[in-house]
Backbone:
């Protein structure tokens, strides 16, 4: 059984730190897997036993240069930062956080305007962090992002832009009327002051952090234009730049808006029954174990189990299923799904922050942190490119003076280089596309953990599918009970007794069949699961074994009497389960599972998505595997695999094809999924382990979602490449054009900012199905 232990680490600020720590800790003896959560700086280590030496893990982390923090006296806060729309603002926040004492770690999420901070309450408070953010010219609040936005005419920044635009227009009218030059100068000057208020605040914040940013550029360019007595160009610079910032914010907010739609799905209140009385409470105040009442037509406010009532529920907001699902006593229901007909009494099983949809929303918010190679490239390029362009602009303005060239034309040309070379287009080209694609997938019931997995999924060449519960429905039925040395009822009763302690899907079929026939199931003792082979237990004081033929071969029990029956059953596509003890075989029970209705079409869809080989992996016998493989239409299959054999199979197919995906339940197939380039978990709704294990998780058991996810990933990578190429081409054209004097200040800025908006708009196309 797997065991999880955690450490909190100080000094984690980026995805590279996560990769470094996970790679090192995975090499510690006894560690099965290691996962670092960037926002909270928590390292979770999974081991096979409970005696893992966490001191060794902590020492490994310290050798990398990080500190392991005592859990006591540590606080966490999530801030939502208004006005953070570009990579420059992220860098300003980054500098500010690094300057604060008592901040252990933090994570900045640009697209979702989110700042997660782990801090020391004895040194700094959340209010202090909010004040620190305010010093940058941005505004932070300690509450979840708004689910609705204010009308554009109520935004102060938009009002100032409108006034600045009118004043700039007035300045041109005054000049056209032939009034004294000082009159239009006043109009342009006031336009610059009004429109430049917000950019000036951000630019000064950057200077205080010793960081040159886009706003510093604007201030420098506007002041330079004024110095050259080009007041109209300075005013146009401010208006165009401010308008571009507003449009950029609006475009990025479209991606944020898609996340707000997910958040708005959840009701804010629930009708709760406590102590015989009914009352309406905010969902945050509802406790696990409370009973909530959901009337027809209402959304279910929290995850839970139906205690009373019968109805059909529209689960499409969570699982993407188009058809309503019948619900009655004992069935699980999810927050944000819609109760259609009858009234339901639901016992709450998860707090509002832990519901399935809450985990989906959290994963979408975290998607930007798991960066693809394209995002790493964009960030690395920007890190060197921006300072280089400032230097180029400076050299363009002043080097010609040493050769006797006039000051004004070359200084102006340097300003143009400044204006056309710096843009948010490249920085936003990747995260906007990633969040748009991940949100699109979430609407369809597909959870994609981040840009890194989008990129990996786009490059897949082979998909490996587990059989039981993945290609098949996962609810097998007993079809045959073959007696050899035991009465039929005794055989089924003994088998059910042992299997009542097992978690294997086939075990449930045998127990269910025994109960349907009204057989008594004896008590068992000393139950032991034999991995990949079967199980043993004492029933009525006698040892009983149940499992595959391989189990009895290892026990050296003669199979001669059963081999013919086993062969016939397996050739019919059934799983033969042998029952006996250390001396003889008592009988064989046949169990069969049905292929999912959409399985064959899903396999065809995978091939259309560019997958070279679709493979089925199973621990089942050769005959059953062959029958299911033929029905599903897979390219090849491998049978009689133990869990470690599946891991080895994944490695072999990676060598043969390159990138491969493993599709399973996220629990029994976790090792193989972890070995694959992309792990895809089926039926993750309501299953925390599957959501955590899979790089992609299908909220429903619908195989047709996999081709859709792969095609979306391919579209996303293509979209990201288009955006990066467009941003680079514009830069490659504008900078040389500015150097040789082909582009003036205002046209250069217009082209630059327009290209950025085109890049963002292209990324937002991924929101469409």
Residues:
């Amino acid at each position: 059984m797997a065991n999880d232990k955690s450490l909190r680490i100080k000094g984690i600020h980026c995805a590279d730190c996560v990769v470094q720590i996970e790679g090192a800790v995975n090499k510690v003896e006894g560690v099965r897997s290691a996962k670092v959560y960037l926002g909270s700086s928590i390292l979770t280590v999974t081991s096979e036993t409970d005696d893992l030496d966490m001191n060794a893990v902590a020492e490994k982390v310290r050798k990398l240069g990080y500190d392991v923090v005592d859990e006591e006296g540590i606080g966490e806060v999530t801030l939502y930062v208004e006005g953070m729309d570009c990579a420059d603002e992220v860098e300003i926040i980054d500098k500010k956080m690094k300057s604060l004492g008592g901040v252990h770690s933090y994570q900045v999420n640009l697209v979702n305007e989110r700042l997660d901070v782990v801090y020391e309450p004895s040194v700094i408070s959340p209010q202090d962090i909010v004040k620190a953010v305010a010093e940058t010219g941005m505004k932070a609040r300690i509450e979840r992002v708004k689910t609705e936005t204010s009308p554009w005419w109520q935004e102060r920044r938009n009002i100032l832009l409108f006034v600045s635009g009118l004043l700039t227009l007035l300045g041109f009218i005054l000049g056209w009327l032939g009034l004294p030059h000082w009159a239009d100068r006043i109009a342009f000057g006031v336009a610059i002051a009004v429109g430049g208020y917000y950019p000036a605040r951000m630019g000064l914040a950057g200077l205080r952090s010793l960081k040159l940013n886009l706003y510093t550029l604007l201030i420098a360019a506007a002041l330079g234009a004024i110095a050259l007595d080009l007041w109209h160009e300075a005013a146009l610079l401010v208006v165009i730049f401010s308008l571009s910032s507003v449009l950029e914010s609006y475009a990025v907010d479209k991606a944020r808006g898609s996340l707000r739609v997910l958040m708005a799905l959840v009701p804010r209140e629930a009708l709760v029954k406590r102590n015989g009385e009914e009352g309406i409470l905010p969902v945050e105040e509802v406790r696990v174990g409370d009973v909530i009442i959901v009337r027809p037509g209402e959304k279910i406010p929290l995850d839970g189990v139906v205690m009373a009532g019968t109805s059909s529920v529209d689960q499409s907001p969570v699982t993407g299923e188009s058809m309503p699902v019948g619900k009655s006593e004992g069935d699980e229901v999810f927050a944000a799904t819609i109760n259609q007909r009858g009234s339901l009494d639901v016992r709450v099983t998860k707090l509002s922050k832990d519901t399935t949809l809450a985990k989906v929303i959290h994963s979408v918010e975290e998607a930007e942190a798991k960066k693809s190679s394209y995002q790493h490239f964009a960030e690395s390029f920007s890190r060197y490119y921006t300072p280089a362009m400032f230097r180029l602009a400076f050299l363009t303005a002043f080097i010609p003076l040493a050769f006797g060239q006039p000051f004004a034309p070359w200084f102006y040309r340097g300003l143009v280089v400044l204006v056309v070379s710096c843009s948010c287009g490249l920085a936003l080209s990747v995260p906007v596309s990633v969040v748009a694609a991940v949100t699109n997938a979430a609407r369809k019931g597909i959870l994609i953990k981040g840009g890194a997995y989008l990129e990996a999924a786009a490059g897949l060449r082979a998909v490996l599918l587990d059989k039981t519960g993945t290609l098949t429905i996962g609810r097998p039925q007993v079809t045959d009970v073959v007696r050899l040395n035991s009465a039929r009822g005794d055989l089924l009763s003994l088998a059910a007794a042992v299997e009542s302690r097992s978690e294997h899907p086939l075990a449930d079929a045998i127990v269910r069949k025994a109960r349907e026939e009204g057989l008594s199931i004896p008590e068992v003792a000393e139950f032991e699961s034999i991995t990949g082979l079967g199980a043993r237990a004492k029933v009525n004081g006698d040892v009983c074994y149940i499992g595959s033929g391989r189990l009895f071969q290892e026990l050296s029990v003669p199979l001669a009497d059963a081999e013919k029956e086993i062969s016939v059953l397996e050739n019919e596509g059934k799983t033969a389960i042998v029952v006996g003890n250390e001396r003889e075989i008592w009988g064989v029970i046949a169990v069969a599972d049905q292929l999912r209705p959409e399985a064959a079409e899903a396999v065809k869809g995978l091939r259309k998505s560019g997958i070279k080989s679709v493979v089925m992996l199973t621990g089942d016998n050769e005959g059953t595997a062959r029958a299911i493989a033929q029905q599903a239409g897979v390219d090849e299959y491998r049978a009689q695999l133990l869990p470690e054999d599946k891991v080895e199979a994944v490695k072999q197919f990676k060598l043969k094809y390159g990138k491969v995906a493993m599709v399973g339940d996220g629990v029994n197939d976790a090792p193989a999924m972890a070995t694959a380039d992309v792990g895809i978990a089926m039926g993750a709704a309501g299953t925390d382990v599957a959501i955590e294990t899979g790089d992609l998780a299908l909220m429903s058991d619908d195989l047709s979602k996999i081709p859709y996810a792969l095609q979306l990933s391919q579209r996303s990578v293509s979209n990201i490449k288009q955006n990066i190429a467009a941003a680079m081409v514009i830069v490659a054209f504008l900078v040389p054009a500015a150097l040789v004097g082909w582009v003036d200040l205002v046209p250069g800025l217009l082209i630059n900012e327009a290209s950025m908006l085109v890049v963002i708009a292209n990324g937002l196309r991924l929101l469409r199905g």
